[in-house]
Specification:
The structure holds two protein chains of two kinds.
Chain A: E1 4-7, E2 10-14, E3 19-25, E4 31-37, E5 43-49, E6 52-56, E7 59-64, E8 69-74, E9 83-91, E10 94-97, E11 101-106
Chain B: E1 4-7, E2 10-13, E3 19-25, E4 31-37, E5 44-51, E6 54-57, E7 64-66, E8 76-78, E9 87-94, E10 102-103, E11 107-111
Parallel strand pairs in B: 2-11
Antiparallel strand pairs in B: 1-3, 3-8, 4-5, 4-9, 5-6, 7-8, 9-10, 9-11
Classes of the chains: A mainly beta, B mainly beta.
Chain lengths: 107, 112
């Protein structure tokens, strides 16, 4: 059983659509991270959250600690947003990663 | 520019050979990590280091070894004991353990 579950696994959207990626976890956490992995393999950290909501440009991340759930939203999606989005949680200084959501935004 | 580098980007080895993957950071981060990524699977932690001269096994440490003699460097050796070494290897660092991680570009290792 994976400590972190993401949905959907794959997502295709038209440019301009509002996108939501979900992450559920089963362990107590000190923080949750959203990461972006581009086709070349490099990974960039998008957000680190322990409560509430954070916004950066067109990206918004929320977390509900009681429900053990986080969402990543992308507003006005663009083809350059096409990537794999990975949710990771931190518990007792250990990281657990979801398998990722592969997003393709079509022009 | 501050960052984290891995070399080489692609590495090919014959079965039975040990191989060392390089990871260097100039971010002045205390914590460093090695992950392995296989197709369709999430990142899995191999080893991590909280501080110089200290490192701990992650979930899949068997067949791997590391050293942390300098703050900037955290090389990973894939030994011949690792049964399925072909994978994408990612190094990361953070200010402290559990903090926001900065990832290197990765090394794709192929063992035949």
């Amino acid at each position: 059983k994976n400590e972190v579950e993401q949905s959907p696994q794959n997502l295709t959207a038209q440019e301009g659509e509002f996108i939501t990626i979900n992450c559920s976890y089963s362990v107590g956490i000190s923080a949750l991270h959203w990461l972006q992995q581009h086709p070349g393999g490099g990974i960039v950290s998008l957000f680190m959250l322990s409560s509430g909501k954070k916004k950066h440009g067109r990206l918004i991340a929320t977390i509900n600690i009681q429900e053990k759930h986080s969402s990543l939203h992308i507003t006005a999606s663009h083809p350059r947003d096409s990537a794999v989005y990975i949710c990771a949680v931190v518990t007792r200084n250990q990281f657990y990663f979801g398998t990722g959501t592969s997003l393709t935004v079509i022009p | 520019d501050g960052g984290i580098t891995q070399s080489p980007k692609y590495l090919f080895r014959k079965e039975g050979q040990n191989v060392t993957l390089s990871c260097e950071q100039n971010l002045n981060h205390d914590a460093m990590y090695w992950y392995r990524q296989d197709p369709g699977q999430g990142l899995r932690l191999i080893y991590y280091s909280q501080i110089v001269n200290d490192f701990q096994k992650g979930d899949i440490a068997e067949g791997y070894s590391v050293s942390r003699e300098k703050k900037e460097s955290f090389p990973l050796t894939v030994t011949s004991a690792q049964k399925n070494p072909t994978a994408f290897y990612l190094c990361a660092s953070s200010i402290d353990l559990g903090g926001e991680q900065y990832f290197g570009p990765g090394t794709r290792l192929t063992v035949t």
